[in-house]
Structure prediction request, 384 residues.
Amino acid sequence: MSNNEPRLSAGKAVGRAVADRHTKRLVQRIAPGDIAIISHADIDEVSASSIIAAKPMAVVNASQSITGRYRCPGPLMLLDAGIPVLDGVGEQLLDLVADGDEIEVREATVYRGGVELASGEWLTRERVEAMYERAEENLEPELEKFVVNTLQYAIKEKDIILGGVECPAINTRIRGRHCLIAVRGSAFREDLEAIQSYICDMRPVLIGVDGGADALLEKGFPPDIIIGDMDSVSDHALGCGAELIAHAYPDGRSPASDRLTSMGLPHMTFRCPGTSEDAAMLLAYDKGASLIVALGAHSNMRDFLEKGRPGMGSTFLARLKVGALLVDARGVSELYRGRLRVGHIAWILAAATVPLAASVFSSHAVSGIAKLILLRIRVMLGFL
Prediction:
């Protein structure tokens, strides 16, 4: 094993394989100590975080974990977490290996039963840093390509902003209320932690977009609505009692609806171009939300590049349409201060009685007045 290769036990990794071309599906099945086989070019932050949480022994990537197209954070996150990554082994490995197969990764080659299946190159910090430098050089042409593609898609999907999308009828009352749209995006868990007091005080309508529904449930907030492609949301979340809306292509095709139907779950279908995140925002806007709080949503250039679409025209148009109603959860966490509750007042008054009680025992002159004040406080707090 060369100095650039990661340290594996006895120079190799032997374990149970879990293989999937979709990383967000794979992380739902992988267990600690497994070897994850993926096909993921430019690993994004959310995917890397999910892989790290699953604690695999190693990751084998059929694609290049970083291509130099932009500065994706995922590969460095995996290395920092001590997870070795074998890169560029080729798509054929996903056709050769099934979940549960015992495989061996030795040096830079993958074996099963002593038979060589594929070879690649170990991802190193030096290679990641070199690709980051290339990404800086590529920034201007990538931005130009992004803008051109976004405008092209915006023309195709202009019905979003012109009102040509028909939202489904729902039972959840949204008009005049805040809506929190939870997306499985960058730092979504940390942002959700930061706005828990806002959720408890304002009780917004909670809309989970795919895996965002699971994030809400993890914090003890059952979603009112779940919308999306339903490819990264758990069966548990789908059965929590939320209204289910299957995001469908403009032509009516909906893999999400197929999954929900196979599970026997009643649902509605929403034909809408663009992402499920866009569909959730348009739904909240159409139903009269007074404020739309986006948690984990795509909000900057890196987010859009990580999304992987040739253009993000629909996202651009959706945000234009909802306009001033849309705020980011990180802004809410900075600006929101919880309401002063009766409990807070009670604690303040209780604290104030401590020095007052001390004076009662030390001075007979104020005893009568103190007792009268304490009596009034007890009446205010409902203790009499």
About this structure: The CA atoms of residues 281 and 318 lie 7 Å apart.
